[in-house]
Amino acid sequence: MKAQLKNYLSLTKREWNGMVVLIFLILLILGAPYIYPYFHKDNTININQFNADLTLLKQSGYDTAMAAKNVPHRGLFKFNPNGLPAVKWKLLGMSDKQIDVIKHYEAKGGRFYKPEDVKKIYGITEADYIRLEPYINIPATSTMINKVVELNSADSARLTDIQGIGPAFARQIIYYRERLGGFINKEQLKEVYGLDEIKYREIKDQVKVDASLIHRIPINTITFDKLRLLPYLDYKQVNAIIEYRAQHGKYHSIDDLAEIAIIDEGILRKIAPYLSFK
């Protein structure tokens, strides 16, 4: 029995050598993480020295913005940002989100009159502007004030000649003008949806109004549905005007409308220029 067990457990010289090599490799692998640091030491950063060097760099007048400006950028080209196609903004390195913001700005009537206007766009970083600024080329004609536009006769194309008015604003102005019957004064532009005081101040010197071009409302024959379009009157006021006419006959002057209780003096002043009593 012992002889059989001994023969079973005995190893040949080749097997013994193979086992020794295997044990050596296992020990080498297990010990590698402990042995490696002795032969390869990482260079540690002295944070105090790093901060001191950074302070000296700033004191020397050097900054990353100037560095970025002095580094040439491949693939950039001279461009006018006004009306630049999205594909070209993409070539300039702008993201889809940045391009959407730029196109939305243009649709609202925004224009770039000088290179610095580009960095005012939300999403354009200081680094983006520094990279692009040397290539921005806005023609002198883009900064010239256009001829004054008459609001009651201008079509949408003519309205977009106004600096600060794009296709979206032009459509809003025409829609409101049609509901009114025309503008009596240019301050009424502030009643146009989306056109606030800031935008009005930007464009007011580029527009004028010819009040003789307004379309007057035949108050004695107009229907409820058509009178309802006038922005200065709400549903109840329109209904009261039609009902009062039905009960008392034709209106002869604005004073007759003053008899309607729910129409105050402020409303009368607004609608009076638009009414015809024939």
Commentary on this structure:
This protein is mostly helical. Among the domains are: 86-143; 149-213, DNA polymerase, domain 1 (Orthogonal Bundle); 217-276, Tex RuvX-like domain-like (DNA polymerase, domain 1, Orthogonal Bundle), CATH 1.10.150. 48% of the residues lie in helices and 3% in strands. The chain is built from 14 helices and four strands. It has a two-stranded parallel ribbon. Residues 64-72 have low confidence and may be disordered. This is Helix-hairpin-helix domain-containing protein.
Radius of gyration: 39 Å
Give the helix/strand class: mainly alpha
Record the strand order, biggest sheet.
Answer: 1-2
Question: How many strands, what sense, and barrel or not for the largest sheet?
Answer: 2 strands, parallel
Q: Note the total helix count.
A: 14
- Note the run of SSEs as H and E: HHHHHHHEHHHEEHHHHE
List the helices and strands and how they pair.
Blueprint lengths: L1 H8 L3 H27 L7 H13 L4 H7 L15 H6 L4 H12 L18 H7 L16 E2 L5 H4 L7 H14 L16 H7 L3 E2 L8 E2 L5 H4 L7 H14 L5 H4 L7 H7 L3 E2 L2
Parallel strand pairs: 1-2, 3-4
Helix pairs in contact: 4-7
Please summarize what this structure is.
With 278 residues, the protein is mostly helical. It has 14 helices and four strands. The chain has a two-stranded parallel ribbon with strand order 1-2.
Please give a handful of descriptors for the protein shown.
DNA polymerase, domain 1, 278 residues, two-stranded parallel ribbon, 14 helices, mainly alpha
